[in-house]
């Protein structure tokens, strides 16, 4: 169980981004979070994944709190894959940093073998995003936070990737938080949808 | 159409590639020149260093291209030997300095207290006049070859350390480092795999550009009498001894060795600059 208890956060002391937000995510559950742009969704995602520290409140992952000494069981997939990959590494090195992946798994995510010896600057954003997804989906990962994960992809690729991801989520019983401003996508993929504005407005 | 375009839009790309190629050519040329210098320091006949009063104080000629000194020693042999010694002193000192700079800048990753200590140390060293620090350290160690090497090594790292530290600070805050942290990688692992490869070009060029500094400072503290002992064929020794004979018209004692020192330093400097041109427009290592 991933539990977010009453977290508040602000980039400066006068203007908080949000206050007292709580939510919980069960293993195997796909939870959608809908909200307009600029409302603080990405900040919220970063806090859940442990990239930022909330001002108050806590994030409890299966009974533990941040920071972890080991690999984080909550993995974040952001909307700018080109920033999350070392520009001086070839793609096989990028995957190697995370673990060893089977050819079958990589094929499912649509990663071509040809790309392995390329540098990130030689691949498109969508292609890089598949690598980010692959390296996040190691056996230790229990929760996946997808922050506008497929916004930059074309419709066909988007459908392909979601199909694979949803299948994996079901297979491994991962909890997934899908953050998006595309309501139809959330409706199609999630078990339960929360409106970020409702979460904010409760207080 | 293409004619029109090429007429009004001169192709800048090809020119740029040429510049890079030229920089590479210059770098290779510089390396060859330095290799010749160091090699000849090993191979040259040391017969010319023997005292020979028959030929004392002779002006430059075909048999003694740089002339001879008051003891009849061949100045050309002395200069080449001196430069070769300077080269090794510079190499060792610049290498030690580079290692110190790298290690101290990497302490940024360990914790804040250590980092502020390093920053303080950098400010301290940059605050003290360079030559004063050099003289103090060399004098404290009793001069000689080791005194000079250690003094030069201990005073040249702050500039490079500051540069590397800024670079590390920038990489440290990049997203792929946070991702790596959330994969459970230690800072040691990250330093080794993410940061060091990134620093290599900076470190290498910093090292090359430190070289002329080190050589000049070695020569200057030797000149001032705090460095190498007088029986060693160092450029600083040659220059300081020549001072006493300049008024008697023996110009060649100072001019040629001084010129050679200048040439060696200039070669190193251009090597560093050209290598920077080769490395700097870094757009991913494309095939």
Task: Describe what this molecule looks like in 3D.
- The complex is a heterodimer of chains A (203) and B (287).
- Chain A is of the alpha/beta class.
- Chain A has one domain: 3-Layer(aba) Sandwich (Rossmann fold), CATH 3.40.50.300.
- Chain A is built from seven helices and nine strands; from the N terminus they run E-E-E-H-E-E-E-H-H-H-E-H-E-H-E-H.
- Chain A is globular, with a radius of gyration of 17 Å.
- The mean pLDDT of chain A is 88.
- Mean pLDDT of chain B is 82; it is low at 282-287.
- Chain B has eleven helices and no strands.
- In chain B, helix 7 packs antiparallel against helix 9 (187-223).
- Chain B is globular and about 80 Å long.
- Helix content of chain B is 74%, strand content 0%.
- With 287 residues, chain B is mainly α.
- The two termini of chain B are 32 Å apart.
- Chain A: It holds the Pfam family ABC_tran.
- Chain A: Belongs to the ABC transporter superfamily.
- Chain A: Residues 2-203 form the ABC transporter domain.
- Chain A: InterPro entries: AAA+_ATPase, ABC_transp_ATP-bind, ABC_transporter-like_ATP-bd, ABC_transporter-like_CS, P-loop_NTPase.
- Chain A: Keywords: ATP-binding, Nucleotide-binding, Transport.
């Amino acid at each position: 169980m991933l539990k977010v208890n009453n977290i508040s956060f602000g980039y400066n002391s006068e203007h908080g981004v949000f206050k007292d937000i709580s939510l919980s995510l069960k293993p195997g559950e796909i939870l959608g979070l809908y909200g307009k742009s600029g409302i603080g969704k990405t900040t919220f995602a970063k806090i859940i994944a442990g990239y930022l520290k909330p001002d108050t409140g806590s994030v409890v992952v299966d009974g533990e709190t941040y920071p972890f000494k080991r690999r984080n069981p909550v993995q974040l997939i952001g909307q700018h894959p080109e920033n999350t990959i070392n520009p001086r590494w070839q793609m096989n090195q990028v995957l190697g940093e995370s673990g060893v992946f089977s050819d079958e798994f990589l094929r499912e995510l649509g990663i071509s073998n040809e790309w392995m010896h390329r540098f990130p600057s030689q691949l498109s954003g969508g292609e890089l995003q598949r690598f980010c997804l692959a390296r996040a989906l190691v056996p230790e990962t229990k929760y996946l936070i997808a922050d506008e994960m497929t916004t930059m992809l074309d419709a066909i690729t988007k459908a392909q990737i979601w199909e694979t991801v949803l299948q994996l989520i079901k297979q491994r019983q991962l909890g997934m938080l899908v953050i998006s401003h595309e309501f139809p996508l959330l409706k199609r993929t999630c078990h339960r949808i929360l409106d970020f504005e409702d979460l904010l407005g409760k207080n | 159409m293409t004619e029109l375009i090429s007429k009004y839009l001169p192709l800048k790309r090809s020119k740029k590639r040429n510049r890079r190629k030229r920089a590479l050519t210059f770098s290779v040329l510089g390396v060859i020149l330095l290799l010749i210098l160091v090699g000849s320091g090993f191979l040259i006949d040391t017969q010319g260093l023997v005292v020979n009063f028959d030929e004392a104080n002779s002006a430059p000629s075909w048999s003694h291209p740089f002339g001879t000194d008051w003891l009849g020693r061949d100045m050309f042999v002395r200069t080449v030997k001196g430069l070769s010694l300077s080269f090794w002193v510079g190499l060792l000192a610049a290498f030690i300095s580079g290692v110190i700079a790298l290690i101290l800048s990497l302490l940024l990753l360990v914790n804040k207290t250590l980092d502020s200590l390093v920053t303080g140390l950098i400010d301290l060293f940059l605050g003290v006049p360079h030559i004063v620090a050099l003289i103090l350290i060399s004098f404290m160690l009793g001069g000689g070859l080791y005194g000079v090497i250690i003094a030069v090594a201990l005073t040249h790292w702050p500039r490079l350390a500051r540069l590397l530290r800024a670079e590390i600070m920038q990489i440290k805050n990049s997203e792929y480092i946070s991702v790596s942290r959330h994969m459970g990688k230690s800072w040691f692992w990250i330093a080794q795999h993410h940061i060091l490869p990134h620093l290599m070009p900076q470190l290498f060029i910093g090292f090359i550009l430190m070289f002329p500094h080190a050589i000049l400072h070695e020569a200057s503290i030797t000149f001032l009498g705090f460095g190498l002992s007088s029986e060693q064929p160092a450029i600083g020794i040659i220059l300081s001894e020549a001072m006493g004979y300049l008024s008697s018209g023996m110009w060649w004692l100072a001019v040629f060795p001084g010129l050679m020192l200048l040439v060696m330093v200039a070669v190193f400097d251009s090597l560093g600059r050209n290598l920077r041109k080769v490395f700097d427009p870094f757009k991913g290592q494309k095939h």
